[in-house]
Amino acid sequence: MNNYQRVLVTGGAGFLGSHLCDRLVKDGAEVLCVDNFYTGSRRNVDALLGSKSFELMRHDVCFPLYVEVDQIYNLACPASPIHYQFDPVQTTKTSVHGAINMLGLAKRVKAKILQASTSEVYGDPEVHPQPESYWGRVNPIGVRSCYDEGKRCAETLFFDYWRQHRLRIKVARIFNTYGPRMHPNDGRVVSNFIVQALRGQDITIYGTGEQTRSFCYVDDLLEALVRIMDTIDDFTGPVNIGNPGEFTMLELAEKILRLTGSKSKLVFEPLPSDDPRQRQPDIALAREQLGWEPKVGLEDGLRETIGYFRGVIEV
User: I need a labelling partner for 307 at 20 to 30 A (CA). Which of 71, 153, 155, 206 fits?
Assistant: First the structure.
């Protein structure tokens, strides 16, 4: 990436966005970070505030933005169930109005734009692992629908802008990602288990604990996003980005207990509504088109994440 590349990152003060801003500044870009701080935090980008290549702007993507940029990474949207279900109408607005506004900006300034979509577009899948060709099995009226359907609608908008206006789009379907700067109270399973283990609290497992997830370390994800943005214009995606290693919730809990040395006990609660039973990415397309696959194993990534949480939570 050359030094004259001007890059907008929406949701840039969040978990993924702040790491992406770090990476882009390091790569020589001029980065404009936009966030309304609903779930993002200024602390996540503190280290960048002194850089001449970084600018922070408080802005909500539900409203138009008028700036001059070459690339846009659209990451703005609360991504954990606790946060996106707190104000579901606003979650849908952020996904849909945010996509419309960022696509409009990209069209005006002829920027290349990447949509951070999600594995949630597959819902509770009947196909395993999930390839990009699978259309998904999503409840359109459930408690998770504000996020699932919001992200699905955003993908629709991106592809309609590509077909109708020949906009240069990229769509990445992000599977469970973890690492430093996760919000301690975001309700995601990795942060939940680590915080509970470090505090010696019971570890809450929903259902039987046999449901599976695949966990991608944040550094691996960033590498994939940058590679997607750098692909030829004809390659739009969607492309799955995640770690195909599949673990049950019980396996994850046992790893975290061992790595933290915690004496916490496992307790079981009813499974939340519409919670997927299986989730594993088919990353054949990412391997073929991006030459990418994750390199960080789950235990190594968990050690880094546990180290971060030891420094930010009270135990």
Answer: 206
